[in-house]
Write a structure and sequence with these properties.
The chain contains seven helices and ten strands. It is α/β, with parallel strands linked by helices. It is elongated.
Length: 278
């Protein structure tokens, strides 16, 4: 069966619905004011032969503005309505921190929450994870994964992007080479351009779009907004976790052969169970 082609109208609504609802309203007002001003301008007939092209251009622009002043704002308003409705449903059915969010709810997370969410999802897949805590400022990657002696870098800072281009993938490829990483992941709730997919194909870089991200974070709870960066916790003299490189905290064994004895435990427990002896 042939794939259904999307019209400009459908694409416009779909793109606007992924933005905050108020952005669609602003776009609707701005386009109406601009196009209405163009549509109401009088097109003066030009008799000179050399000015006929200019006259035709003005006529075409005036015609476009006459119809566009109603069509484009309608697209933006419909998209804004869908965005507002989607946010209402997410708020009613997905309490913060209770369960994994839908793809639309990801836009409500801060970059730090999104980074922690992706990190938790990779831990469930058997990787040890260390967050840079810098929103991609560490030179093109947000997470460092380790598994079976191999290192992987993850770029996930553009979680609100609708379409991700090849530049982000090239940037990750460069830092992979600089850090000696085996492979890498680029994570987004949107989609990738064909150029980005073609570049990643031969570079051991896995591109995770919205569908793959949904599978990755399925069943992973959303980190709380008040969660602190474990790398900056006030644990004076505390070592770093041997598994995920987060700061460790003093704990006391409550069972086993070492009951009552103190030890260093990862501050990210139970997501990470790294330990050190005192």
């Amino acid at each position: 069966m042939a794939r259904r082609k999307h019209s400009f109208f459908d694409d416009g609504i779909a793109l606007t619905s992924k933005l905050p609802w108020w952005v669609g309203v602003v776009f609707a007002l701005a386009t109406y004011v601009w196009l209405h001003s163009v549509a109401t301008q009088e097109v003066t007939a030009v008799a000179q032969q050399g000015k006929m092209g200019e006259f035709s251009g003005q006529t075409l622009l005036n015609t476009f503005a006459t119809f566009g002043q109603y069509v484009l704002p309608a697209i933006f308003l419909l998209g804004a309505t869908m965005s507002a409705y989607g946010r209402f449903r997410r708020g009613a059915s997905h309490p913060q921190g209770a369960a994994s969010p839908g793809l639309g709810a990801l836009s409500d997370l801060s970059w730090r929450q999104f980074e922690l969410l992706v990190g938790k999802a990779f831990r469930r897949r058997g990787y040890s994870v260390a967050e840079t805590g810098s929103g991609g400022a560490e030179g093109g990657f947000d997470l460092v994964l380790k598994k079976e002696g191999k290192t992987y870098l993850v770029q996930c800072k553009q979680w609100r992007a609708i379409k991700l281009g090849v530049n982000t993938v090239r940037e990750l490829h460069g830092v992979m080479a600089a850090h000696g990483a085996t492979g890498g992941f680029v994570v987004t709730s949107g989609v990738f351009t064909e150029e980005a997919q073609a570049f990643a194909a031969g570079q051991n870089i896995t591109l995770m779009d919205g569908k793959a991200l949904h599978v990755l974070i399925s069943g992973v709870s959303v980190p709380g907004r008040g969660m602190r960066n474990p790398l900056s916790m006030l644990t004076t003299g505390a070592p770093f976790c041997p598994v995920c490189q987060s700061r460790m905290v003093m704990r006391k064994a409550t069972r086993g052969t070492h009951v009552g004895k103190q030890y260093w435990g990862c501050s990210r427990y139970p997501d990470c169970r790294g330990k050190r002896r005192l």
